[in-house]
Each structure stands twice: as structure tokens, then as C-alpha cells.
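Now for one record.
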Amino acid sequence: MSNDPMEQLDRNLARVADLLEHHLGKIPPENDLAAAEAFVWHAKERWLQPVEKINRVEIGLLKGLDRVRDILIDNTERFARGVAANNVLLWGARGMGKSSLVKAAHAQISNKNPDIQFKIIEVHREDIHSLPDLLAILRKEDSRFIVFCDDLSFDGDDTSYKSLKAVLDGGIEGRPENVIFYATSNRRHLLPRDMIENERSTAINPSEAVEEKVSLSDRFGLWLGFHKCSQDEYLDMIDGYVNYYQLKMDEAELRAQALEWATTRGSRSGRVAWQFAQDLAGRLGKRLD
């Protein structure tokens, strides 16, 4: 073993680092918000993980959403340019493109305004309580951020919605000027009906108890509703994917298979249309890149 003092110091420092990692967990890298255009927030480590390739589809492939698409893009572009814009709740039927539209809108505005540092950050539902920590990091940055939570809802005795309420509209600091909050949910009020009814039946003042719960969704300036699609809209979605990815099939046979696919799943939606396109591409020996 070497008696070199510097080598001995290096070994001692390595032992200290191992002990710290054992007791405190692995120390994450420093946040580098210039590393990507999208990040995932890890609350425990207070770390924004860069996303190299965002999972999203072209906005033109999202059929049957013209009205809500235009409203969301307008709101997003205003925010990106630094003028007044609202937090947005996208609610409604499953699989109708709520989260896909958020990511596609971010892509369109970023491509249209390459001179603007415009990022999107995904926050997992279970990390909602840590939003104040995230905003403290973002408040210091020059970039503009969509903070996005997919499939947001609250159940039972969950009180983390109070953290979200403070972030959206309250608190002594308020929401940072460079941050906007977008959320998707199957519920318009983010809370199940039985939870609201239970509050109504057990509270001393039922109307105040319900107001406390329902007021969360009121903090979103825009509510965009997504509803189940018609058969024609579903087939239009199929045609969009088939044409975009150049999947060759007889039109009548394509229609028959697409309708059978929806029937076996008991629903028609953008998600079902995409799943059919994936299956069709696989049977034709093609990749969907």
C-alpha cells in the first residue's frame, strides 16, 4: 500500500462519499435546465431529469379536437410570449388526447418561436405536495415553463390538493410569472362524486365543505372538455395515422378492421385508434417512428 499522503486522502474521501451515499442515498446531479426542452421532476431528490426524446404525436394527427386545440394553442402561445395566460384543466373522456394535446401544443409553440426558451416539466401525481420546492427552483430561471400533471385527481383523505390550490392562486409569493400549470383529469372537479357527497353529509356546514373541495378546479382559468368521439371521428383518426405512416390497406377492409377493433375494446377514442394503428403497422412489418 502506498504511503503517498495524497493517495491516502483520496481513499479517505472516497470512504466518506460511500458512507454519505449509504445513509443519504445517491446524490443526484445538479439541475441543468439548458440540457433539454423537457424534464421529469423527482421530488425526493429535488432533481429535474432531462428527457432526451419526448413521447408525443404530431398535432395534426389529433382529430376531432379543433376547438379545444385552438384554445389551448392560443393560451400557450400567449404564455410563451410573456403575456397574460391561464392555468388549464383538460378534463373528460379517457383516451381522447388530453395529454397528447398538451405535449403537441408545446412542440408547436417551441418550433414556431425558436428564440424563446420554452420548457415542459412533468410532475407525477404523487409529487404534487412538492410543487412549492419545484417553483422555488423555476422562479430563478429565465426560461418559461409548463408544469404538467397527467391524470390528476384526489381520493379519500388525500390533502395534497391544498398544496396545489396554494400554488395555482394563493400563497404570499404567488405563482411565478414564468410558470403555468396544465393538468389532465377524467374528473371536472378532480374529486370523485362520493367524496364530495360524503363531505356534504358529514360537515357541520355542508355547503362550505363542498366549496372547499370544488374550489380547486376553480383555480384553473380554462376548463377544456373532451368527450367521446363519434364513429366518423374515430375513423378519421384511423385515416390520419394510416396516411401519415403510409400503411397500405384496402379502404373497405381497413374500415371493417378498425370498427371491429373498437368493438372488441368497447369504446372509440384516440387511444384506441392509435393502438389499432400500432397493430396494423406490426402486421404489415413496419415501424411507427
Notes: The radius of gyration is 23 Å. Residues 199-206 have pLDDT under 50 and may be disordered.
